[in-house]
Specification:
Two copies of one chain form a homodimer. Chain A folds into three domains: about 70 residues, Winged helix-like DNA-binding domain superfamily/Winged helix DNA-binding domain (Arc Repressor Mutant, subunit A); about 120 residues, Nucleotidyltransferase, domain 5 (2-Layer Sandwich), CATH 3.30.420.40; about 130 residues, ATPase, nucleotide binding domain (Nucleotidyltransferase, domain 5, 2-Layer Sandwich). Chain A has twelve helices and 15 strands. Chain A is about 40% helix and about 20% strand. Chain A is globular, with a radius of gyration of 22 Å. By secondary structure, chain A is an alpha/beta fold. In chain A, the strands form four sheets. The first copy, chain A, has a five-stranded mixed sheet. A five-stranded mixed sheet of chain A has the order 13-12-11-14-15, with helices on both faces. Chain B binds a DNA duplex through helix 1 and helix 3.
Chain lengths: ~375, ~375
DNA sequence: GCACTTTGGCAACAGCGTTGCGAAAGTGGA
DNA sequence: TCCACTTTCGCAACGCTGTTGCCAAAGTGC
C-alpha cells in the first residue's frame, strides 16, 4: 500500500459513510469520529469530493452552543451503474444511481436455452445496456456515458463461474458456455468496466448495502426458487471462496443416505426442500430449510438470515416463521436470546438480483469488495 | 487509516514475507516485487527493522551479471510469545520465538473440574508462564521479559467465549466461569498483553502460519477429540464470527430427525461421529465426518481440510481416506479434479493448540488478524 | 453587547513512499 | 590486467499524505 492507496482507502471510507447517511447527511466532525481521522483530514477529503461533484453541502444541524455543523450529503446523480440479471427466460437490466436507487429498467424475454451462441447473449445484453443508458442518461453509447457518470456494467447469472476472471463455467443447462470470457467480451463490446458474478452473490451484495445495513456485518441470503443457493456476506464483503463456489447451499447434505438428488449425492437440502414444495407441504419445506440455515448460522456465527426467491415470495410468512423457529431454537441452545439471529423474508422481489448486479461496480467505490 | 497505520501495515507486510522465507531469506528486490512497493521504500523499511534487531543480513545470492542481491532474514530470537493450552486435565505452556518454533515447554496436570475458582486457574496459568519465561529467557518476571522480547501470552481453551473482550462464557463443564474476564485478569497479573481464544481457533491459526503455508489462503481445521469442532481460516485470517462462535461444527445436523444429541437437537454430526467411534466403527465415523466436511467445503469453497485431535491421531490414515473420499466425490460432481481440495491429517499432536495459542500474539505482528 | 463555545479553513509541518543519481560490487570480454 | 557493462542499494530532494497551531466565522446565553 502506498500513499495513493492510502488516499483512495480513506476517500472510500468517507464515501461509504456518506452513502449510509443517505438523505439525512452527515457532518464533517461526525465523519472524523467515525473514520478515526482528524477533522482537518476530513475537510481535505470532502473538499476533493465536492470538487468532483460527488458530495455537496446540504443545510445545517442545530447549534449545540457554537457554530452549527454543516451537513454533507452524497450526490447520487454523480454516478450510475447498470445491473443485468441474466435469468433462464428473461434479461432484466436496471440503471441505478450511486445510492443504488433504480432510475431506469428494461425487461425482455430471452429464452437462453434456445440460443446456442454465447456471442448472441453478449449482443443481447449489450443492446439492453445501451438502450437503457440512452433512454435514461441521454447518451448515445456507454462509452460516451462513461465519460459522464457511468461506472460500469455488472452481470449476474446462475453459476458456476469465475468471478475474478469473469469467465463462465458449466452454467447449469448451458454447457456450450463453458470457458466463455464474458467479462472481457462484454467489456470490449461496451467499452466500460464489466463485472460478472453469481446471481445469489449479487443479491447478497445488494442487500448488504441496503436492507441489512444496520449493524449486520455478516449475514446469509438464502435464495429458494427453481433451485436453492445462498450468498454469504462476511464482514460487509461478499465471500466467494477460492473458485467463486462459496454459497453452494442447495447441496448441503442434511439427511445421511437420504433420497437421491440430481447432483449425484443423497439427502441434499435442495432435493428435500423442493420435494416438500412439490407436495404442497410448505411447512415441511420451511422446516428443512431451517435445519440448513441453523447449520449455516452455527458454522459461521452470522448476525442475520435473509430469505428470497420466487418460492419464498409465494409464502413469505410461512418460510420466515419455519426457518426462524429452527434458528431461534439453536440460539436458545447456545444460551443466546431467541432473537439473536433474526430471520426475515426479503420484501424486494424480481428486481433484487439486477439491483445487486449494479452494486458489483458501485461497491468498490465505497470500499466494499476487491476494488 | 493514517500515516502511522500505513507504516505499520507495510512493515507487517515485509515482516510476513521475511517470516515465510524462513532460513532461506529473501532479497530486498524480491520484497519490493511481492509487496508492490519500490525498492527504495523496502530499503527504508528493512533498515528500520535491522535497527530494531528484527531482521539481519545473511549472505548473498549468486550474481546474475551485476552486484549480487543481499539476503535478509528474520531474527527469530528478537521476539518470543507464550502459548497456553488450558485442557480439561492439564495445562500445557510453550514458549516460541518469532518463527513460532517452540523453545521451551512446561506441562502440568490440573483437574479443572475439581477447581472451583477462576482465580485459581489464573494463578496456575500465570505461574506456569512465569516459570517458563524465567527458565528459558532468564528473566525473573514476564514484565521484565517484556522489556526484552516477550510479545505477550495467548491462552486457548474450549469455548464458548468472547475473543474480542477476552471474556469466558459457559465453558463446557465449568459453569462457574461464566462471565469471567480472563484476558484482563491475566493481563493485570502478568503485566503483558494477553489474548484468549477457542482451542480450535488457536490450532487453526497456528496451522495457517505453518502447515498450510503454501497457497492455501482458506482452509478448515477439523478437530475430533472428546468433542468435535472446527477452526476456519478465510483469506489467511481466522474467521470467528460475531460472537466468536464460528466453527460450531459438531452440532451441524446431517441427519434429519436423527438420534438425539446432548445439545438438545437431533442428528448432530458430533453425536453420530462419536457414537460410531464408541462402536469401534472408525470407517463409519470417517464417512460421517466426511459428509460434514464436504458440506463445509461446498459452503465456503475452501482450499484444504486438515484433521486433528486425539481420535484422529489414533487412526490418521483411516480418517484422511474416509473424509477425503467424500470431499473428492464432491469435487468431481462439481467438475473439478479429485484432488482439488486435499484432506490431510495434521502430524503435530498434543502441542498443536499450545503452539497456535502463542501465535495469537505473533500473528498481529505479521499483519494476520485484527492487530 | 459581550463572553463563550463550536466549527472549519489556512498555513506550516513531520513523515510516508517516490524519484534521480551515484557508489559499490559483481561479470565477461579485450 | 583492464575496462565496459550490469545490477544492487543508499543518499538527497521531492511530492503528497495526514497532523498541528492558529484564527475567522457563526452560533448561544447572560
Amino acid at each position: 500500500m502506498n500513499l495513493l492507496g492510502l488516499r483512495s482507502h480513506n476517500t472510500a471510507l468517507v464515501l461509504d459513510l456518506l452513502r449510509r447517511a443517505g438523505a439525512d447527511g452527515i457532518s464533517r466532525l461526525e465523519l472524523a469520529e467515525r473514520t478515526g481521522l482528524t477533522p482537518q483530514a476530513v475537510s481535505k477529503i470532502t473538499a476533493r469530493l465536492r470538487e468532483r461533484g460527488l458530495a455537496a453541502e446540504a443545510g445545517r444541524r442545530a447549534s449545540t452552543g457554537g457554530k452549527p455543523r454543516t451537513v454533507l450529503r452524497l450526490v447520487p446523480e454523480a454516478g450510475h451503474s447498470v445491473g443485468v440479471h441474466l435469468d433462464r427466460d428473461e434479461v432484466r437490466a436496471v440503471l441505478t444511481d450511486l445510492n443504488g436507487t433504480v432510475v431506469g429498467e428494461r425487461l425482455r424475454p430471452l429464452d437462453l436455452a434456445a440460443r446456442a451462441g454465447a456471442e448472441e447473449v453478449v449482443e443481447a445484453v449489450a443492446a439492453q445496456a445501451e438502450a437503457l443508458v440512452g433512454q435514461v442518461l441521454g447518451a448515445e453509447s456507454p462509452r460516451a456515458a462513461a465519460a459522464a457518470s457511468l461506472v460500469g456494467v455488472g452481470v449476474a447469472l446462475p453459476g458456476p463461474l469465475d468471478h475474478r476472471g469473469g469467465v463462465l463455467h458449466r452454467v447449469t443447462g448451458f454447457p456450450q458456455w463453458d470457458g466463455f470470457p464474458l467479462r472481457d467480451a462484454l467489456g470490449r463490446r461496451l467499452g466500460v468496466p464489466v463485472a460478472v458474478d453469481k446471481d445469489t452473490n449479487a443479491a447478497a451484495l445488494g442487500l448488504a448495502l441496503t436492507a441489512a445495513e444496520d449493524g449486520a456485518g455478516s449475514f446469509a441470503y438464502v435464495h429458494l426458487g427453481t433451485g436453492l443457493g445462498a450468498g454469504l456476506v462476511i464482514g460487509g464483503a461478499v465471500h466467494r471462496g477460492a473458485r467463486t463456489g462459496a454459497g453452494e447451499f442447495g447441496h448441503q447434505v442434511i439427511q445421511l443416505d437420504g433420497p437421491p438428488c440430481g447432483c449425484g449425492d443423497r439427502g441434499c437440502l435442495e432435493a428435500l426442500c423442493l420435494a416438500a414444495v412439490a407436495r404442497g407441504d410448505v411447512g415441511e419445506a420451511a422446516r428443512v430449510l431451517g435445519v440448513g440455515a441453523a447449520n449455516l448460522v452455527g458454522l459461521l456465527d452470522i448476525d442475520l438470515v435473509l430469505l428470497g426467491g420466487r418460492t419464498v415470495a409465494a409464502a413469505p410468512g410461512v418460510f420466515a416463521a419455519g426457518v426462524g423457529e429452527r434458528v431461534a431454537a439453536r440460539a436458545v441452545r447456545e444460551g443466546l436470546p431467541r432473537d439473536a439471529v433474526p430471520v426475515r423474508a426479503v420484501p424486494g422481489g424480481a428486481r433484487t438480483v439486477a439491483e445487486g448486479a449494479a452494486q458489483l461496480l458501485l461497491a468498490p467505490v465505497f470500499g466494499r469488495g476487491e476494488g
